[in-house]
Specification:
Elements: H1 2-22, E1 28-29, H2 33-37, E2 42-53, H3 58-66, H4 71-82, E3 83-95, E4 99-119, E5 126-150, E6 153-175, E7 185-206, E8 209-219, E9 221-222, E10 224-229, E11 232-237, E12 244-245, E13 248-259
Antiparallel strand pairs: 1-5, 2-3, 2-13, 3-4, 4-5, 5-6, 6-7, 7-8, 7-10, 8-13, 9-12, 10-11
Length: 260
C-alpha cells in the first residue's frame, strides 16, 4: 500500500510541470530578474525540525498493559515516542534554474523514557521500573526538485521535491522488567523502499543563499523485520495488519546554498 502512495505523490508532483507548460498567466514565474541572468548549477540544502510518526503502536501498548502496566503511563510513553527530531542533507544539480536531480539523506530520531508502575501477578506487589525506547529511521535516495518564483516578490519562491530510496528502521526497547508478555530488551530492525514529498518556501537575502521553511511527508512500511532478544535473533515476515508503518510528517527550517 505504501508503494501506491509513493506513486500517487509522484503523479501529483508532476502536475505543476504540465501546468507550467500550458499556462504562463499565473502568480508564479520561473527565472525572474537577476537570478535568471546569473543562474546557479548546484544547490546544497541543510535542514532540521520536528517529526510526528503515524506508526500504530497499539500491539506494543497492549503487551505492556497485559503485563500489568498502568494504562495512562503507557499511553504517555508512546505519545512521547511519536514525536521526534528530523535532520536532512541534500544536493541537487539544477537545470535551467527550474528543476534539478540529486541525492538526499535524512534521519528521524525519537526518544521516550518513563517510570511505569506494574501490578505483579500476585495482585499484591507492585513494581516501579524505567522503560526506555529509542527509534531511528535512516533514509537515502534519489531526489527530484522543482522551483517557481512569485512574480511580485522575486526574493521569494515556492518549491517542491520528491524522493524515492532506501529506508532503515531501528527500534530499541529497554527495561529491567520482564514477563511472559514481553522481554526486557528487544532490538527491532528492518529495511524497505521508502519515499518523501516536500513543499515549502524559500527567501533569498542574497542571490547565493536562502532561508527555507516547509512541510514534508515520509512514507515507509516494513513487511519483515529482524528481532533480537539478548543473544538470540530471528527474521519475522509480518502479516499486512502487523506491518511496521514508519510514515510521518516533518516540519522544518533550513538553509540552501547555490553555486556554479
Amino acid at each position: 500500500m505504501c508503494r501506491y502512495w509513493i506513486l500517487f505523490l509522484f503523479v501529483l508532483w508532476m502536475m505543476p510541470i504540465k501546468a507550467q507548460d500550458n499556462n504562463t498567466d499565473t502568480l508564479l514565474v520561473v527565472n525572474p530578474g537577476a537570478r535568471h541572468e546569473n543562474p546557479k548549477q548546484w544547490r546544497l540544502g541543510l535542514q532540521s525540525g520536528l517529526s510526528y510518526m503515524w506508526e500504530d503502536t497499539s500491539d506494543e501498548e497492549s503487551r505492556l498493559i497485559n503485563a500489568g502496566a498502568n494504562p495512562s503511563e503507557v499511553d504517555d510513553l508512546y505519545n512521547q515516542i511519536r514525536r521526534g527530531y528530523y535532520l536532512s542533507v541534500d544536493a541537487h544539480r539544477l537545470f535551467k534554474d527550474i528543476w534539478g536531480i540529486g541525492i538526499k539523506y535524512s534521519l528521524m530520531a525519537s526518544f521516550a523514557e518513563k517510570y511505569v508502575l506494574f501490578e505483579l501477578d500476585d495482585n499484591v506487589n507492585v513494581l516501579h521500573t524505567q522503560i526506555t525506547n529509542r527509534r531511528y529511521v535512516n533514509y537515502a535516495g534519489v531526489s527530484f526538485y522543482i522551483q517557481q518564483w512569485f512574480k511580485k516578490a522575486e526574493a521569494l519562491y515556492v518549491y517542491s521535491s520528491l524522493s524515492i530510496g532506501y529506508a532503515h528502521y531501528r527500534n530499541e526497547f529497554e527495561t529491567d522488567f520482564s514477563s511472559s508478555y514481553f522481554k526486557s530488551n528487544i532490538l527491532t530492525t528492518g529495511n524497505t523502499i521508502g519515499g518523501s514529498f516536500e513543499v515549502g518556501l524559500e527567501y533569498f537575502p542574497l542571490h547565493w543563499i536562502s532561508i527555507a521553511m516547509g512541510l514534508g511527508c515520509f512514507l515507509a512500511q516494513f513487511d519483515h523485520v529482524d528481532i533480537t532478544r539478548g543473544p538470540y535473533g530471528q527474521e519475522v515476515n509480518l502479516l499486512e495488519s502487523d506491518q511496521r508503518n514508519a510514515s510521518r510528517m516533518d516540519f522544518f527550517v533550513g538553509l540552501r546554498f547555490y553555486f556554479k
